[in-house]
Amino acid sequence: MTFRKYLVLAGVTIFAAMGDSLLAYGMRQVGSLSWHHLPEVILAVFNPWVAVGILLLLGFFASYMAALSWADLTYVLPATSLGYVLLALIAKFWLHEIVSPTRWLGIVLISAGVGFVTQGPALTHRPSALVAEECLPAVASTRAEP
Amino acid sequence: MKHLYTWSAIALIVLASTAGDVLLSRAMKQIGDVGELRRRSGLLTVVGNILRHPSFLLGVLAMTVAFYSLLFALSWGDVSLVAPASASLTFVATAVAAQIFLHEHVDHRRWLAAVLVAAGVLLLAA
Q: Predicted ipTM?
């Protein structure tokens, strides 16, 4: 794990937290969706908050893909869950919501989970087995090189 | 009735996003470290390789299903229920699926991490 890789993980965390919160804010403005007005579902993405939220989530997606190319799924997911802690802190310091003791406990548990998983190896599985299954010669050769 | 709708949407989010995560992870592992690939063959080639990968396209399809289920769920239920419930269930579902489909070695440490994070996310909603 290099400093750059930790930066990518931080990108995953921050983009996801900010994207989700903007999306939630926008959907509250759009209101209840229903099966009878399906066009509204599609038009929901034109709400400015939802649109900016989607842009941030695209940034999340790019960094997420980069992270998944060199780390396990079961490493990346817990390692980037600090985003929930970030959301709670945004709620407290920016939106001035009261963070209850239960929520602080939740934050502690998540942080402990992040600590556990990031102390272990980032990559554990055998990519060669996966590659062989798919018979992709070009991919197999790039994989074998490092 | 609205309750049932919300939980059905949550179940769909968990299923679709677990499938999506597994497919995307599979695609990126086969493509290889994008940092190294970019240095060797340029960013456009890497992006092209990713966009043409079948597992990646299927993964994006699953993520789209998950995204629209999330929009529906958010419009029916509180964000403080929908987001943590679907997220924490997805953590546990992904740990199981990664072990089965990606042959990742999910040891005690990773199980503990998945469960701690899932529990923490639930507490945030309480």
A: 0.82
